[in-house]
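Let's practice the habit of predicting before peeking. Look at the sequence and jot down your guess about where helices and strands might fall. Then scroll down.
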Amino acid sequence: MVRQLTASSAINDIIAERQRQQSVEGWTPEHDDHHTSGEIAGAAACYAMHVNARGWVFPSNPGVYQSEVEPGEWPWSPSWWKPTTPRRDLVKAGALIAAEIERIDRQSVQVKGGAA
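Done guessing? Here is the structure:
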């Protein structure tokens, strides 16, 4: 018997964050298409690595976790580095990964001459 998969709250939160990035921040697919050097994936990795390396700080001192400077690999202006909570940062990372996959998919279609 094949078990039907349903979206977990984590997946739903990633989808909601991706939608927020587009509607609130203005990071539309057209905007994302200009980031062709791995910046979006790099930003996702920075958030995930921050959780990995510094997530232990949050329970006892959230202010320290949230105010740490951006990593050297952060691809954008320091003003866009906004760590919040380990879970929220992983949601941001997931949404950024989705954005990068979508960008790659759009690029692939363009390279193939519009064929799906």
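How did you do? The chain is about 60% helix and 0% strand.
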